[in-house]
Design brief:
This protein is of the alpha/beta class. The protein is built from 18 helices and ten strands. Strands 6-7-8-3-9-10 form a six-stranded mixed beta sheet, sandwiched between helices. Strands 2-1-4-5 form a four-stranded antiparallel beta sheet, with helices on one face. The longest helix has 54 residues.
Length: 630
């Protein structure tokens, strides 16, 4: 066996153990106390139903025995059977019927009671997993497919429901019924027949266990193919603009077809293995039933048993083998459910790398002074990163971050939001290390307008108020007005109730950016972060958004990452990064005079703009240069 197979087997065994332990923990968690009476009532109804299921065949068999005996005596005395033996037989038949009805009705009442318990447990488990995934650090989300994580939660919570229901009210009660039935057969009828019943159950359990173990490996491979298929589908559909832009529809269809083909191949093997299991189970049960009835018939012929006893044994074995078949189904599903749920538990056990310290405090409303002190950091899988970065931003200052692509600008923002912790050094706000404050209070202090504002497929009201859910419509509209979005909202027939579409695609780029600005205004943060907030906009739209950004930045610390250097030319200070280090700092004029990295970037952006402004027929002569002096 390879190392990966060893690990897979270990994970599978660990998953089964965790299933049982966590099912108990799920039922007895504090939030489930309100359902304790339902759990107790459901358990009582289950035990009553199983007891009546064993009692019913005994009543019918005894009725048949008494009827046959009375009929024989009455026939010898010349008395009609219907007048003498009939009432005895009908009384036991009536009791048999009542016991059968109750044994079938009580589980239905139990299910009606217990469904609320199972669904509540499923809800809590799914919400726990969803919350845990949300609380993971940024690196987790960068390396996981959203569709795959969602599928893990769906399949795992579904397995939770099944396991709670079957472990509590099918597996345990079925084993109890088997034990009671075998004891009754041994005590009332025949020890040998009881031995046949027990041997059949053991053979059935062993065969089911062995084949199910083999099927579990098939199911695991099918689930992996299913996860890949769904991840590809979600990834492709959510990025349909890119697919359209590159004319890759047919290529993506082929990729989906390949994933679907792999899934179907593994699905077919799972179904074929299920057919084999069903054949083996049915064969064992049939042989057991035949052996028990044949032995009972011989004992009747020998006079050791009565005809009614055979009837009782036949019905009892039928009742036994029916739940035994359910037991086989349940065992298969438990093993398969363990495959599904082990990944959910792996997700729940995956600890976030960025967590609040036990003594972390709420930072409240900070002044907004930012400090980076000898900070170094490299992303996972990369050698290069920030190296010994140090700078201070006074409260209320407007500071720009510039530099070529990959210089480390976005990494600084992620450290500032504490999406990552530095490998060395410290990042602080108002002199307090970010690791000493709660993440929730830290992020309330920061507002961000990203390069691409991605919106939820909900109303404008929902998206605008995402920064502060308790905001009133008046506050939302006031923030929208300051973000140059008021006229647009008033022009819409549904106003704030207008739905924006998937990722806000019903809005233009400028409208989405202004929604992002309005969010920041509504949050009223101590520090505003502009992450290339206008780099993807046309010049006319950029002017409107810049006006909104100026309104949002007023009176607070502002950090702007700029692709277009013109947007930070009037910053109090510009920090220029190159290869993860600070190359230079200063005002726009100082950096232009220094004629270093910033000046080079400025010339690269200014030359094309100057060329576009040339009059028709004009051109740059050899040796001419463009004056970029600010």
């Amino acid at each position: 066996m390879t190392n990966s197979e060893d690990q897979g087997a270990a994970t599978k065994r660990r998953g089964v153990g965790r299933v049982f332990l966590r099912m108990g923990a799920a039922v007895f968690r504090p939030e489930m106390r309100k359902w304790r009476w339902r759990i107790a009532a459901a358990a009582t109804l289950t035990l009553l139903a199983k007891g009546l299921a064993v009692l019913a065949p005994v009543l019918l068999g005894e009725g048949v025995n008494r009827a046959v005996a009375a009929a024989g005596d009455d026939a010898a005395a010349g008395v009609d059977f219907a007048g003498a033996a009939g009432p005895h037989f009908l009384l036991f038949v009536a009791c048999f019927g009542l016991a059968r009805i109750l044994s079938n009705a009580l589980p239905q009442a139990r299910d009606a009671l217990f469904v609320r318990v199972t669904q509540d447990a499923v809800r809590m488990t799914a919400v726990d997993a969803f919350r845990h995934a949300q609380n993971q650090d940024l690196q987790f989300h960068l390396t996981r497919r959203a569709g795959a994580v969602n599928r893990i939660i769906e399949r795992g919570s579904g397995a939770i429901e099944f396991l709670l229901r079957f472990l509590a009210f099918n597996i345990g009660p079925t084993i109890i019924e088997l034990a009671i039935a075998a004891s009754v057969i041994a005590a009332l009828y025949s020890l040998q027949i009881a031995a046949i019943v027990i041997a059949t159950i053991i053979a059935f359990a062993i065969a089911t266990g062995l084949i199910t173990e083999w099927r579990s490996a098939q199911r695991r491979r099918m689930n992996e193919a299913d996860t890949e298929l769904r991840a590809i589908a979600m990834d492709t559909l959510s990025n349909f603009e890119t697919v359209k832009a590159f004319g890759a529809e047919e290529r993506e269809a082929r990729r989906y077809d390949g994933a679907m083909g792999a899934y179907i191949d593994r699905y077919v093997r799972v179904i074929q293995s299920l057919s084999l299991l069903n054949v083996v189970q049915e064969g064992i049960m049939t042989l057991g039933l035949f052996a028990a009835v044949a032995l009972a018939s011989l004992r009747v012929a020998e006079g050791a048993m009565q005809a009614g006893d055979v009837t009782a044994i036949l019905l009892m074995l039928t009742n036994i083998y029916r739940p035994l078949n359910i037991l086989g189904f349940a065992w298969r599903e438990i093993r398969q459910g363990a495959v599904d749920i082990e990944k959910l538990y792996d997700l729940l056990d995956e600890a976030p790398r960025i967590v609040d310290r036990p003594d972390a405090r709420d930072i409240g409303r900070p002044a907004g002074a930012i400090g980076f002190d000898a900070v170094s950091f490299a992303h996972e899988g990369r050698e290069a990163g920030l190296a010994d970065i140090s700078f201070d931003i006074p409260a209320g200052a407007f500071v720009g971050l510039a530099g070529p692509s990959g210089a480390g600008k976005s990494t600084i923002l992620r450290l500032l939001f504490r999406f990552h912790d530095p490998a060395a050094g410290r990042v602080s706000i108002d002199g307090v290390d970010l690791r000493d404050v709660t993440q929730a209070s830290l992020r309330r202090a920061f507002g961000v307008v990203p390069q691409e504002v991605v919106l939820f497929n909900d109303t404008l009201r929902f998206n605008l108020a995402y920064a502060r859910q308790e905001a009133s419509d008046a506050e939302i509209l006031a923030a929208a007005g300051r973000a140059q979005l008021g006229d647009f909202i008033r022009s819409l027939p549904d106003g704030l109730d207008t739905r924006v579409g998937e990722r806000g695609l019903k809005l233009s780029g400028g409208e989405k950016q202004r929604v992002g600005v309005a969010r920041a205004i509504l949050l009223d943060p101590a520090v505003l972060v502009l992450d290339e907030a206008t780099s993807s906009l046309d010049s006319e739209t950029e002017k409107d958004v810049q006006t909104a950004l100026a309104e949002a930045a007023s009176g607070r610390t502002t950090i702007a990452v700029a692709h277009r250097l013109s947007t930070i030319a009037h910053a109090d200070r510009i920090i220029v990064l190159d290869n993860g280090r600070i190359a230079e700092t200063g005002t726009h004029e100082e950096l232009i005079r220094a004629n270093n990295v910033y000046a080079s970037l400025w010339r690269q952006q200014s030359a094309p703009a100057a060329a576009e402004n040339l009059a028709p027929g004009e051109g740059a002569r050899g040796g001419d240069t463009v004056d970029v002096e600010a």
